[in-house]
Write a structure and sequence with these properties.
Shape: globular
Number of helices: 6
Largest sheet: 4 strands, mixed
Helix content: 25-40%
Strand content: 15-25%
Radius of gyration: 17 Å
Length: 143
């Protein structure tokens, strides 16, 4: 694979975003129903934060949905995206290279990069798995 090619050649363009006021309960449902582990938080079409499934799990009490659930536990579901998101996430431009993306992912020990244009509008998302999938073909995997 040519690591000098732009991120736009490999990024996923189907990105799931949520509003800053989206409740934790809905965010948890979304992440339970999909195969990915991050949601982008957007306001006026601009990226303002990111939420991982780990952020959601750390915000929820394990007693929710059990006989031990308290009112305080249940009230956590009213938290919003802006309450649990990582603000000002690290991003990349669609014109930057895959090599740049890999370096950023490794340097910051993160697993995904929102891809944004000059106005901070989300145009895609790139994960370390996307880079590996491009490099390693299914036939190359051990059996």
């Amino acid at each position: 694979m040519d690591m000098s090619q732009p991120v736009s050649n490999l990024m996923s363009v189907h990105v799931h975003g949520v509003a800053p006021d989206e409740p934790l309960e809905l965010i948890h449902e979304i992440l339970t129903d999909v195969h990915y582990h991050h949601l982008l938080v957007e306001e006026n079409e601009r990226l303002i934060g990111i939420i991982s499934d780990r952020d959601v799990l750390s915000s929820l009490c394990p007693h929710i949905g059990t006989d031990h659930e308290s009112e305080a536990d249940h009230s956590l579901l009213a938290l919003s995206a802006q309450d649990i998101m990582t603000k000002d996430p690290i991003t990349i431009s669609p014109h930057q290279s895959l090599s740049d993306a890999a370096g950023i992912l490794l340097k910051h020990e993160i697993s995904i990069l929102p891809v944004v244009d000059a106005s901070n509008v989300v145009v895609g998302i790139l994960s370390w798995k996307d880079i590996l999938r491009a490099e390693i073909k299914p036939d190359d995997l051990p059996h």
